[in-house]
C-alpha cells in the first residue's frame, strides 16, 4: 500500500483484475490483505468468523508491531470499532440514541441554519480572494465538525485542533514519533473536554456517557470513554467532510449530472448515494481479523491477518455495478447498493446524520451558487496523504463559474 495515498481508483482497478481478495504490504513491511470486490466485501464484513478485537491480530500479539506504527490506533483504540459481540453491542447502545433517524431529523433545522451561516462565510472568503475560496476549509469541514462537536458537547475552541489531530491519526505516511504524539494529544484534548463536562454537566453526548459510567462502571471504562469520543470526533466529521468534498468535485467535473439535479430530474439524495459508491470517502479501512483460516472468493486469508476493507474498490467493481461502474451517474438508482457506510453489525452508526448533512449542504450550496466550479484543474488538487481517507486536502472553487 502506498503510504502517501493519492487517488486510489487506477490501482484499485488493477487489483480487481487480479481478484476480489489480495495480499498487501502495509507500512512498516507488515503483511496484510485487502478485500476489494463488492460481493466478497459484503460477505467478509458480516462473517461470523471475522473479528475487530486486536487480540486476534497475530503480529501485534507477537510483539512485531512498533509503538509508532501509523495504523496502530485503528487496531488498539478502545471503542466500538475494535469491539466484538456483547462488548460491541454494549458500547453501541450507549450512543445509538443520538443517531436515530428521528433524532437526526430533529437536528435538521440546526444543520440548515449552520449551513446558511457557513455559506455567508464562504461568500466573504471568496470576496476577499478575488472570487475564489477553499470550499473544504470554509464549508465542508466546519459543518460536520460543528454538528458532531455540538452533539458531544466539545467547545468550538477545540475544533481546529481536533481536525488537525484527526488528520494526523488517519495519515498513513506519518513518522512514528508524530503518530505517537498525535494520539497522545488527542487523548489529552478529549480528556480535558470530558473533565470539563464532569465539572459542568450538560445535555450532550459526553454528559450522557459520563452519567452512564458513573451509574454503572461496568458499562463504560475510562479508556472506552476516551476511545468512544475519539471515534465520534474522527468518524463524525472526516467521512462527511470527504463526502461533501467529493460530491462537489464530481458535480463540477460532470456538469450534465449537476444539470439533472438542478432541473429536478434527480435529487440531492441521488448525488450523495452515487458519490458514496463512485468515490467513497473512505478508501481502505483498517482492520478486521479472521479468527480461523478463511477462504473468501477462492483466496485463503490466514487466521490473525490484518485485513483492509476496500470500500473505494468495491464501489467501482464492474461485477457488481455493471460495465459502466466507473461512470458517475446520479440516475443510476436501484441495482446493487454500495457498501461505503459498511455492512453488518458495524454498519456506520452515523449514516443518517452523514446523509442528512450532505444533502442539506449540497442543496443550499448549489441553490446559492449554481455556476460554482473548480478554480484549478481537478488533476491538480492535492490528495490526502493516506490510503484510508479518500479525498483532496483543498478544494479551491470559483463561486460564480
UniProtKB/TrEMBL annotation:
Cited Pfam families: p450
Family statement drawn from the similarity comment of this UniProt entry: Belongs to the cytochrome P450 family.
Name the UniProt record assigns to this protein: Cytochrome P450
